[in-house]
Design brief:
This protein is α/β, with parallel strands linked by helices. Helix content is about 35%, strand content about 15%. Helix 1 crosses helix 8 and helix 1 packs across helix 12. About 0% of the residues have low confidence.
Length: about 350
């Protein structure tokens, strides 16, 4: 008689607060863990339906609800309340966990003791450590039929699974499998905002410059000198190819006018500004650009992972040690390895002679 194998499930509930980039960091954790630990993925939709419809990550997936498989226990994982085992009779508590986490966090932030104010278990914002996931997905838990539920920013990031795979700590092909799945879902989902205005005869370079809430203190700010040096160098390296720079930024009229004045010194005829453009339109064009310069923001990190083009990034937070076959590091002075870029650009133009706007993921 064939023994029935237990089926365990994974869902990650996106934060109700914060911007869309952080919610995607949460959501994609579910795809990673399902692929990594051979779990059945349960989709917890993004809080805003418009973004759920745009990205299409929930297409053809089972939607998680409190009533799903009411016979199964839940292993709930959050940063402050820790790892809790909820039996089927107490699984209703899952709906209150985000509120409880918020209250604990708020209380700790008001503490006069610095160590308490800064305490998190684990340091989850930029990705939890490998040991944390090894603890959760131990052999005892793997042998049970259970629903794993992650909330409030317990994450595993794409940079982590790429780096762990490179070091031989996990399956080195996990990263590429997850990336390809995300691309298939995004590019396979039709949406009115997924139209392309790029010139099909040009090398289109999308540049994201985060302003509005960016500051030196919160480490989301990159100076215009960084962008000017980087774009000037690109202008020189691909001058024989017709190319256009598409600048994406949002902020006050004063900020945008200052940005335009500063960058016009690079070129007067191939800079196109998309200031305060609708977010979905900007994200899609960053995803299909031939070359993407990302800012210190998840708003452009995610188009970078969806893109098959060449990506430039300044290492920070959860963006470092990325795949060198697609990503190029830039220092704060806007300098990068010219040979690295030239080799990627030569391969890219050979592999993708047609406009990226025509991209279809197989």
């Amino acid at each position: 008689m064939t023994q029935k194998l237990n089926t365990s499930y994974i869902t990650v509930i996106p934060n109700s607060g914060h911007r869309i980039g952080h919610k995607l960091d949460d959501l994609i954790t579910g795809f990673i863990l399902a692929e990594w630990h051979n779990l059945k993925y349960l989709h917890s939709p993004l809080p805003q339906g418009k973004w759920e419809d745009f990205f299409g990550f929930g297409e053809d997936e089972i939607i998680f609800s409190e009533d799903f498989r009411k016979d199964l226990p839940i292993i709930s994982c959050t940063p402050f309340l820790g790892i809790r085992h909820l039996n089927p009779q107490s699984r209703f508590a899952i709906r209150h966990i985000e509120w409880l986490e918020y209250r604990v966090h708020s209380t700790l932030k008001k503490s006069p003791i610095k160590e308490l104010r800064q305490w998190r278990r684990p340091n989850f914002w930029d990705g939890s450590p490998l040991e944390y996931f090894e603890k959760i997905f131990n052999q005892d838990n793997k042998n049970r039929e259970v629903i794993f539920c992650f909330q409030k920013g317990i994450r595993v990031m794409l940079y982590q699974i790429y780096d762990w795979g490179r070091q031989g700590k996990i399956d080195p092909n996990l990263y590429s499998r997850v990336i390809q799945k995300l691309k298939r879902k995004y590019f396979g989902k039709k949406h009115s905002m997924k139209k392309c205005y790029f010139n099909p005869d040009a090398i289109n370079i999308a540049v994201h410059i985060r302003r509005d809430d960016a500051s030196v203190e919160n480490q989301r700010f990159l100076p215009l000198s960084y962008y000017k040096a980087l774009l000037s160098k690109l202008n020189r390296l691909i001058k024989s190819d017709f190319h256009e720079f598409h600048i994406y930024s949002s902020g006050s009229e004063k900020e945008m006018n200052s940005l335009k004045r500063e960058l016009h010194s690079i070129s007067s005829n191939n800079l196109i500004f998309h200031c305060n453009e609708p977010a979905m339109e900007a994200i899609h064009h960053m995803a299909v650009a031939d070359i993407l310069v990302i800012g210190n923001s998840s708003f452009s990190h995610w188009p970078g992972f969806l893109s098959s083009g060449i990506k430039f990034y300044y290492p920070h937070f959860h963006m470092f040690n990325l795949d060198k076959s697609e990503w190029i590091t830039v220092d704060i002075g806007g300098e990068f390895d010219e040979f690295h870029f030239s080799s990627l650009f030569s391969k890219y133009t050979k592999d993708f002679p047609a406009s990226r706007c025509l991209q279809q993921v197989e």
